[in-house]
Design a protein that fits this description.
about 425 residues; alpha+beta; Creatine Amidinohydrolase, Chain A, domain 1; Creatine Amidinohydrolase; 2 domains; six-stranded mixed beta sheet; three-stranded antiparallel beta sheet; 19 strands
Length: about 425
C-alpha cells in the first residue's frame, strides 16, 4: 500500500525528536478479544504503523540514539505451529525485515533483555514512550504499563511522551499518503452511487446501507468508521447508527460514511431525498447548507486559519436562514447547528493535529456544515474530504452527487 521508504523517512523524523543518549519505544498494542473465542479485526496503533508499516499485534519498535548514531530494532511475536494452523500467521524475522526495511528484527522474548541500558558510563539519559493521550482511562495500554515500569525502576530518568510531536508530523501528508486518501474517496464515491442507484421508499435504512457495504467488500476496502444512515428524525441525532427505520416517501436520509484504504480514511456526508425528488422546503434548506460548505471550500488555502472556516460557513448559513425568516439574529443558528465544521483526517477518521493553526499545503481534512430541524424531522449535513494545494484545495469527493440538480438527475435516470 505504501512504501518502506515512507516509513523509514518517518523514523528519521522520530529520531530527530530524540535527545542524544536516549531510547524510544512505540508499541503496536494487542488484539482485543470478542465473544471469548474470537478477536476483533486488528488495527495497529497509528503511530506505530506510521513509523514501521508492520500490521501485526504485540510488536514493539525500539530506537536508540547514542553519540549521534541511531539504531532501530523491531520486536515481533515468535510465530509457532499453532499460530500458523489456526490464524494463518506465517511471518519470520527475515520476512519482516524484507517487508519493513528495518535491519534489526528480533523476537519479543528478547525485548526485556535489551532494555537495561540505564547504568554505566554510557548510560541512557532520556526515555521516549509514545502514548495516545485519550487511552488508559479504565485500563492501561502496553505503552503506559511499560512507561510506569521504567518510572518505578529508574525514577531519575525522564520519560517523554512523543504523541503530540508525531501528531504534528502526521498533520501534513506526503504524496503517497494523499494518493491513499484519493483511493479511499474513490471507493466511497462508488459506494454512494451504488446506494443512490437503488434507494427508494419502503426500504429500511440498513438496506440502503448494505449497497455501500457491498461496494467496499467488492473493492477489498474496510469501513473507516461505522456508517450513519439516518432518515427523517434520525438524521437529527449526530451519531445515530441503528439504521433500522423503514423509510417513507418524502423522507430525506443523511449518510455519513467512508471507505478506508491502506489504513487511510475517507469521510463523506450526503443527504438525499429517498424518492429522488426534493420538496421546495427541502431544496431551500439543503441549498443553505451547501452554500455554507462551498464558501468554506472556496476559502481553504495555505495561510488560512483553519478554525475560521467553521465561522465562515456558519455565518453564511445564518445569513440565509435570516433571509427566509427562520431566524432573526445570526446567533440563533445555534438552535439548528451543533457541531464543528470539519476535522483532520488520516490514519484516524478524526485524525490528530492542532486545529488552531494556519493551513499548509498537503494537509488533508474535512468540511461538514449541517443544519438539524427537529420539528421538520429533517437533518442535513454535507461533508467533503479535501487536500490543501499550492493555491487552494482539491476536493477528493467532488464527484459524489452533491447539488440538487446532480442528485435528482442521478436518482431519476
Amino acid at each position: 500500500m505504501i512504501s518502506k521508504e515512507f516509513h523509514a523517512s518517518r523514523r528519521k523524523l522520530y529520531a530527530d525528536l530524540m535527545e542524544d543518549n536516549s531510547m524510544g519505544f512505540v508499541f503496536a498494542e494487542n488484539q482485543k478479544s470478542d465473544k471469548g473465542d474470537q478477536f476483533f479485526p486488528f488495527t495497529p496503533y497509528a503511530n506505530f504503523y506510521y513509523l514501521t508499516g508492520f500490521k501485526e499485534p504485540r510488536a514493539i519498535l525500539k530506537m536508540v540514539k547514542r553519540n549521534g548514531k541511531v539504531s532501530e530494532t523491531l520486536y515481533v511475536e515468535h510465530t509457532d505451529e499453532t499460530m500458523k494452523r489456526w490464524l494463518g500467521v506465517f511471518y519470520t524475522k527475515e520476512s519482516v525485515k524484507e517487508e519493513t526495511g528495518i535491519e534489526n528484527v528480533e523476537y519479543l522474548e528478547n525485548f526485556r533483555k535489551s532494555v537495561p541500558l540505564f547504568n554505566g558510563p554510557e548510560r541512557i539519559k532520556h526515555v521516549y514512550v509514545d502514548m495516545a493521550n485519550w487511552s488508559g482511562e479504565y485500563s492501561m495500554t502496553e505503552a503506559q504499563k511499560f512507561a510506569s515500569e521504567i518510572r518505578t525502576k529508574y525514577p531519575d530518568i525522564p520519560i517523554h511522551n512523543t504523541f503530540d510531536e508525531i501528531a504534528a508530523i502526521r498533520r501534513v501528508k506526503t504524496k503517497e499518503e494523499i494518493e491513499l486518501h484519493r483511493k479511499a474517496c474513490k471507493i466511497t464515491e462508488l459506494g454512494v452511487k451504488n446506494i443512490l442507484a437503488n434507494l427508494k421508499p419502503d426500504m429500511h435504512e440498513y438496506e440502503a446501507e448494505a449497497y455501500f457495504d457491498f461496494t467496499l467488500k467488492s473493492n477489498n476496502a474496510r469501513h473507516a468508521f461505522t456508517t450513519i444512515a439516518g432518515s427523517a428524525e434520525n438524521a437529527c441525532s449526530m451519531h445515530y447508527d441503528k439504521n433500522d427505520r423503514l423509510m417513507k416517501d418524502g423522507d430525506m436520509i443523511l449518510f455519513d460514511l467512508g471507505a478506508e484504504w491502506g489504513y487511510y480514511a475517507a469521510d463523506v456526508s450526503r443527504t438525499y431525498p429517498v424518492n429522488g425528488r426534493f420538496t421546495e422546503q427541502q431544496k431551500t434548506l439543503y441549498n443553505i447548507v451547501l452554500k455554507g460548505l462551498e464558501s468554506a471550500i472556496a476559502a481553504a488555502k495555505p495561510g488560512q486559519p483553519k478554525e475560521e472556516l467553521q465561522t465562515l460557513s456558519k455565518n453564511v448559513m445564518a445569513e440565509e436562514l435570516i433571509k427566509i425568516g427562520m431566524i432573526e439574529k445570526p446567533e440563533e443558528i445555534n438552535k439548528y447547528y451543533f457541531h464543528g465544521s470539519g476535522h483532520y483526517i488520516g490514519l484516524y477518521t478524526h485524525d490528530v493535529g492542532d486545529s488552531d493553526i494556519l493551513l499548509e499545503e498537503d494537509m488533508v481534512f474535512t468540511l461538514e456544515p449541517g443544519l438539524y430541524f427537529d420539528d421538520l424531522k429533517l437533518g442535513i449535513r454535507i461533508e467533503d474530504t479535501l487536500v490543501v494545494t499550492k493555491d487552494g484545495c482539491e476536493v477528493f469527493s467532488k464527484d459524489i452527487p452533491k447539488t440538487v440538480e446532480e442528485i435528482e438527475a442521478f436518482m431519476n435516470r
